[in-house]
Design a protein that fits this description.
By secondary structure, this protein is α+β, with helices and mostly antiparallel strands. It has one domain. The chain has 2 helices and 6 strands, in the order βββαβββα. The radius of gyration is 25 Å and the shape is elongated.
């Protein structure tokens, strides 16, 4: 997690509340609450905000859609003629020799 002094309240992110020891999703629509009520404690590295003690944050990574994943697994591997690949017909591993 990142230190709170780098937190941008305009961006949706996961924020750690030290009081409850939980991470909640910060919504960018709360930026006015932040600007009005946030009380930073630079020495402690946290911000007091409406009954919470915020001390860290992390970006929210968008989840891959099923379409994105299917494109990754649907890529067909094409081997040169005469190459059988890393598995025999009975699926026992066999050594693969580098060219």
């Amino acid at each position: 997690m990142n230190r709170l002094y780098t937190f941008d309240p305009d961006q949706e992110s996961g924020v750690h509340d030290a009081l409850s020891d939980e991470v909640f999703i910060w919504e960018s629509s709360w930026v006015d609450i932040w600007r009005q009520y946030a009380f930073p404690d630079v020495a402690a590295g946290c911000v007091y905000l409406v009954g919470r003690i915020l001390d860290a944050w992390e970006p929210i990574v968008p989840a891959a859609s099923p379409k994105d994943c299917s494109e990754l697994v649907s890529k067909e591997v094409v081997l040169p003629p005469g190459e059988a690949g890393p598995l025999d017909d009975d699926l026992r591993p066999r050594p693969v020799h580098a060219p």
